[in-house]
Amino acid sequence: MKDYFSDKSSLPIPWVESPFFYSLLKNSNLTEEEKSFCTKFHEDGYVLIDVGLSSEEIDAIVRDMYAALEEDNTIYHADHFQYTESKRIFELWKQSKAAADLCVNNKIMDTLRLLYDREPVPFSTINFIKGSNQPLHSDAIHFHTCPRLWMCGVWVAFEDVDETNGSLKIVPGSHKWNLWEYDELGYPHPDDITNGEEVNYREYENFLSQLVEQKGLDPYVTQLKKGQALIWAANLLHGGSNVEGVTDLQKTRLTQAQHYFFEGCDKYYHPMFSKKYEGDYALKWCNDKNNIKTYLETGEVSVFDKTVTMDKK
Fold it and tell me: What is the C-alpha to C-alpha distance for residues 293 and 232, in angstroms, rounded to an integer?
């Protein structure tokens, strides 16, 4: 028989998401500081850490961000994921070793190992020149796992961020709410309707806006110092926070969001394009042996059968 009070792997979800969390914590060999840190993540769905980046490391990524704006091969998020004139740079790790290196930063990786008790699998970066103003959403609509909840986001600040330059807003505790993928919301597959990807996502944003209102909650605008990072759980609601009359739209908000799965899952998939109740999963490009970490180790990675080779410069 399993011991759900002391075995972190007794359920197929992360131990920090377990209904037995407090017993698992009590029976662990973690320090009091680590216990307090994990409790914060379990209860609120996010934690803040100092990443320990040097000015040189930050400057290298920022230079590559601005350089990417001038390169023809730079990928941006689709227009329906752009909410300001400042486009979000998608997958800068393919063009910038400095951006890729940040994904395997020792402090970040060690913190994720503590929180999830598994090896992190970095697979995505999004870079921001200015605030996004994106409505609230859960990353579990963009990337998810079987078993569920083995995913998290990390947002690293390259300068001080707050409401004056459009920091991140979050809804603490929302990671404990129901998981609302398109199947649960009754949306058609985006390929089955005209302009389906945008239509579904706008309705998804509308649903979450009304859900937060129904619960009577106000999002919290985070404040990070240069070199700090916010780590959030898979289902935590978050978005941009351009505040009318407060946010200066001329100011930069230089940041990098990076996303992680964790080793040992059966599937890593894209919920928007899946019909999971029919067993049809739109699988992500990455896995335990093919991700940003292995890209840095080997110099190449396969992304949907296309080989991406590291620029040696």
Answer: 20
Distance (Å, whole) CA 98 – CA 58:
8
- pLDDT tens-digit map of 96-138: 999 999 999 999 999 999 999 999 999 999 999 999 889 999 9
Domain identity same for 175 and 69? yes
Give yes or no for a cis peptide into 147 (omega within 30° of 0).
yes
Residue 194's beta-bridge partner residues? none
Residue 61 vs residues 68, 124, 227: alpha-carbon distances, Å: 10, 15, 12
Encode pLDDT of 24-44 as tens digits.
999 999 999 999 999 999 999
Question: pTM for the full model?
Answer: 0.96
Domain housing 24: 1-44
The residues, ordered by sequence, that sit 6+ positions from 96 with a Cβ below 8 Å of its Cβ are 60, 61, 64, 65, 68
- Quote the radius of gyration of the chain (alpha carbons, Å): 19
Range list of H helices, the chain: 21-26, 32-44, 55-68, 97-103, 106-116, 182-185, 196-214, 292-298
Count the helices and strands in the chain (H runs, E runs): 8, 15
180 and 157 part of one domain: yes
Asked whether residue 40 falls in the same domain as residue 60, the answer is no
∠ Cα 247 91 275 (to 5°) = 100
Assess whether 75 and 30 both reside in one domain: no
CA distance 131 to 168: 8
- Say whether both 36 and 170 belong to one domain: no
Query: In terms of domains, do 96 and 245 share one?
Result: yes
Residue 23 has pLDDT above 90, yes or no: yes
pLDDT digits (tens, 9 = 90+) for 141-170: 999 999 999 999 999 999 999 999 999 999
Shared domain check, 53 and 37: no
